[in-house]
Amino acid sequence: MSYIIDANVLMGALISGKSFYKTVFQQLNPLLPQFALTEIEKYSETIINKSKLKDDELKRFTIAIFQPLTILPTYYLSDYALRESTRLIGETDPKDVAYLALAIQLNGVLLTRDQPIYREARSRGFRRIMLFDDFLRTHL
Fold it and tell me: What's this model's pTM, rounded to 2 decimal places?
């Protein structure tokens, strides 16, 4: 099973500094679209300011968190997956289309903390999406 995480899950892990996330990510080997790096960069100051870790600890933790991740370039996403994802959540949150498209293309599960896209995708019949905290409670 392929698991796709969105940037809010990754940012939450980085801010928390909890080693638990290293274990979870090593078990899942999650995938992310290239757009996740844009979001991480956009909110890098927030991550640094809210992190419970000192600067050097955050840098080491970031390396540990990123090691099991696979980041796929935008060209990897098929036109079909992008169209279907846009149909499902494009009106709710267009910037999250790439995450759902990756789940569609890989027949994987999108793990998110974004309740609006979760509700919208599910209301339109897409079932391979879970709230990250629900996933943790039921699978780990």
Answer: 0.94
